[in-house]
Amino acid sequence: MIFEKMEQSDYEQLVFCHDKTSGLRAIICIHDSTLGPALGGCRFWNYDTEEEAIVDVMRLAKGMTYKNAAAGLNLGGAKTVVMGDPKTDKSEAFFRALGRYINSLDGRYIIAEDVGTSVEDMDMIYQETPYVCGISESFGSGGNPSPMTALGVYYAMKRTAKEAFGNDTLEGKTVAVQGVGNVAYHMCKFLHEEGADLIVTDVNEEAIKCAVEDFNAKAVSIEDIYGVEADIFAPCALGGVLNDESIPKLKFKMICGSANNQLLDQDKHGKMLNERGIIYAPDFVVNSGGVINVSDELQGYNKERATQKVKGVYNQIGKILNIANEKNILPLEAAEHLAEERIEALLRVHGKFSSKANNQINK
Ligand code: NAD
């Protein structure tokens, strides 16, 4: 049953990691390493069943293959899920045991933080393996990736605006922001500095207060954000917010935000937006600034170089919109095509013998 599922989407490897003393129960999934070492975060989640954890790690690992490929990174896609309660089950031994398993993969997989894990957890893994990103700045890393994710979203928004409005200036545009957390706060700062007007909502009163005070944003209720008069919608809180109920209310020309999996049903709701003349910038490319930033650590982190690479999200979105126009397909499909074509092309390149790449001659 598992091999059948692996075969369906050409998965490479599933690794079950167990440590009785610390209680570690983790699954590492490497989906595809054609482009390079497979990189993907570590999700710590209270899964009800092992099956649920396996399904999730496989889904997330495949998503990382597309994200890394579409971002133009020389990285494959993978993910780790840890079964347990992130509030009570963490310990030094727990993460160091996980670090040893990652080390045993000898660089095929590189871990980073995700939902339920932190920079401190990655630091413990770093005690056991160099194959970890998103560690503390004191170790020479880029630290919290959220400001870089925000920079990428901002550049993606500018390029999508060029498609929607004819030019990429956001001055005078109104942007409706759902959730003003880590990423969106920084994104709002960039937008405010360029002269955009902001309408915000959040379940956290304090987050709203900051946006209102710092960026002169107008606050609305959670339910009202979908129907506000604005040019751009930036979902930066949860997945699945673009659905049968919300889409008919939207008056925006384009959608570009940091949240993962914004479309509840990728095909159905992607088409619904298109029918309403709303351009949807593919979320996994829009929010790739974070992974672009952490992956710079693999070369020895350089903030200037990482910033330039993150700004490159503008051109990646441009490429995707051009493919969508040429092939008359949705931008999300175009992003998937771009990722698949890049993997296919490099797979063929790898088929050519090169003594250095194949490591046949020790010089
Ligand atoms: P965060 O938790 O700091 O911010 C999310 C905000 O949304 C919070 O302020 C929260 O109160 C608010 N929120 C929750 N439910 C809401 C609701 N129903 N309506 C309105 N607001 C609500 O998270 P973040 O790190 O800023 O990430 C935001 C999104 O971007 C997430 O979907 C995340 O997966 C995605 N993302 C983040 C990064 C990163 O670098 N942090 C990278 C890629 C993708």
Automatic annotation (TrEMBL):
SMART domains, sorted: ELFV_dehydrog
Gene3D superfamilies, per database record: Leucine Dehydrogenase, chain A, domain 1, NAD(P)-binding Rossmann-like Domain
One Pfam match: ELFV_dehydrog_N
Reactions accelerated catalytically: L-glutamate + NAD(+) + H2O = 2-oxoglutarate + NH4(+) + NADH + H(+)
CDD domains assigned to the protein according to its UniProt record, in alphabetical order: NAD_bind_Leu_Phe_Val_DH
Keywords linked to the UniProt accession: NAD, Oxidoreductase
Domain Glutamate/phenylalanine/leucine/valine/L-tryptophan dehydrogenase C-terminal as annotated: residue spans: 143-351
PROSITE patterns the record matches: GLFV_DEHYDROGENASE (PS00074)
UniProt record similarity statement: Belongs to the Glu/Leu/Phe/Val dehydrogenases family.
Name the record gives this protein: NAD-specific glutamate dehydrogenase
